[in-house]
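SUBJECT: A protein chain and its fold
Encoding: whole-number codes for local backbone shapes
Chain under study, with its fold:
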Amino acid sequence: MSLSRGLSLPLAIAAILGCCRVGVVQAQQGNWKDRAESELYESVAKETAPARKLELLNSWKEKYPATDFVDIRQQLLLAAYGELGRPGDVLTVAGEILAREPNNLQALSAALVSISSVESPSADQLATAERAANQTLSNLDTLFAAAKKPERTSETDWAAARRNVQLYAQNALGYVAWQRKEFDAAEAHFLKSLRLDANQPQVSYWLSSAILAERKPDKYSAALYDMARAAAYKGPGALNDAARKQVLENFQKTYVAYHGGLEGSEKVLDAAAIAPLPPENFKIPSKADVVKAEAEKQQELERTNPQLALWRRIRTALTGPQGRPYFEEHMKDAELPEFRCRLIEAKPADNPRELLVSVEDGKTPDTRLVFSEPLPPGVPVGAELAFKGVPKQFSESPFLVVFSVERNKLTGWKGLAKPKGKGILRKPASK
């Protein structure tokens, strides 16, 4: 994904320089070597097809390596390479222009935009982009002085151009540092850019990559948030749908690798869609954090509710890869300690022989109690019970353990009391 937020290289350059260009490059003072050189220039000026224009420019360069109009030719080459989407060549020509004219705004902007589109940039290309970025940031007032504003450009557009070029320079410094594996510096540059303009999801994604590359676990939460920003943001300047989908997949993969699952990831995405940077002390629990929290939670449960703690250990064992052998070897036909539960359903409703109950959360059925004799009716759904029985079978999906239970080992089942006889009426004793 390129720095241009999904735009092609030519469109990205045009977006920056649209209010700065004079239009067709005007001939500077000088003399043509001969009429053939003049005709070559005129052919270039009239040509609209970028590939053919480049052929003509190269022919001009080959036939007339020395010319009074080298500046014009290089500006035309810069535009042609940009239109053809050849960022490496754009950088080369921009560097040549800047060597002679350090404050050439077109060359500076082209170098800043192009660097992120070069596949495996060389040290020289990175150096060219870095020089262009530093030159730009050091001379913004000069580059965008009021006297240099094109006549037909509004003050608003001129200010917007300055801001855009500043952002591209700041991002180029971050990108160069990132490519050089200077990840701390890249992080600092990208953060500075986002504080200038928060709605740069591409920069948010680069920032996340730079932070992850630092391999500092205490920063991984921030990196995941930045990646979520690139995936979730849909406002002005958002990545296109294909890019956001790719970033989302990377976010989910990285989130699972760090956290252990996708729990909580939607909340991160929702927050990042609104706020560009993570809040202070933002924290996503790592796998180690999750394990520690679960261990502490289990210890507290062991202390406050040992019956439920035992049930959860049993359930973990039964739902694991060795669940079936565990049941056969350690549970089947063994009398287990008492468990508390809530009634989900009695079968049949009158004088039931089976009870479907929930031990885990009081809502989800996870246990069936089977009795040899029917129970009296009258206990409502949701009633709290306790039982002590012998496991006979279980299923993994849906999870259910079947217990054989004796009537006298079920507590909380009161049923309906049988009415007592009225007896014989007697006359009052005579006095």
